[in-house]
Amino acid sequence: MLRAIIIDDEKKGINSLKLLLEKYIKDVKVVAETTDPVEGVKLIEDYRPEIVFLDIQMPNLNGFELLERLTYRNFNLIFTTAHQDFPVKAIKNNALDYLLKPIDHEDLEKAIERAKKKSDTNQWDNYKSLLEQMNASRSSKISLPGRDKVEYVNISDSIRLESDSNYTYVFTTGADKILVSKTIGDLRINCVPMIIILCVCINLISLICVSLKISER
Predict the structure, then answer these.
(1) Of 87, 86, 97, 111, nearest in space to 2 by CA
(2) What count of other Cβ atoms lies within 10 Å of the Cβ of residue 212?
């Protein structure tokens, strides 16, 4: 019996995957689950599972950042994501597995079979190569999770941010305005100093804008 951990910031994502595992995969047991990626680090270290299902896009700590915090790495990693974008291409290039949401049970069965075949090998070299690629990408691009997809924008092309309740508008040099499903406080951008325009709605017809400067990290 292979022990598995599921880390996904959406509870419905965890429940859906558990149902598929219970129905179609008889020799995999979910021993722990969490919607908190920080807690996910501790669960992996404590349980030392054979398989980890890891969501890519999560608030506060994404899947790649979680991997960087681990000291225990001898497990089979299966990424889960709703977006077929740049990270998925990088995952493919490094011979790692991923499942596209909504997860199909046949794709899940194939991923588990591949994990069994690789159970005696340590994939950390592949993880390390993937992390190096993602770190290089993060140094020049920022990921902007929208309602339907994640967009990757060059940091140098970003002009300003405007807050709109629980969302943020990102303005770029190409005159594009991208709606991001995060608040300015949640939107962590590791980049050169930039001006943020924080727009606070006072009522339906008035708006106050306060300029804030982010110091270089």
Answers:
(1) 111
(2) 10
Order of strands across the sheet with 76-81?
A: 28-34, 2-7, 51-55, 76-81, 97-100
- Please state, in angstroms and rounded to a whole number, the distance separating the CA atoms of residues 51 and 111: 11
Closest of 101, 120, 123, 121 to residue 6, by C-alpha: 101
Taking the complete model, does pTM exceed 0.90, yes or no?
no
179, containing H or E segment = strand 177-180
Among the listed residues 77, 80, 85, 87, the one whose alpha carbon sits nearest the alpha carbon of residue 103? 80
Tell me: pLDDT of 21 over 90.
yes
- Of the pLDDT bands very low, low, confident and very high (cuts 50, 70, 90), residue 192 is very low
* Single-letter amino acid, residue 191: C
On the 0-12 / 13-18 / 19+ scale of CB atoms within 10 A, 53 is buried
d(CA 21, CA 15): 10
Question: Structure tokens of 18?
Answer: 């558990």
Per-residue pLDDT reduced to its tens digit, 123-165: 666 666 666 655 555 545 666 777 666 676 776 676 677 888 7
pLDDT at residue 61 in the model = 85
- Exposure string of 86-121, with b = 16+ CB inside 10 Å and e = fewer, is bbeebbeebebbbbeeebeeeebeebbeebeeeeee
The residue written with tokens 């804008």 in the block is 209
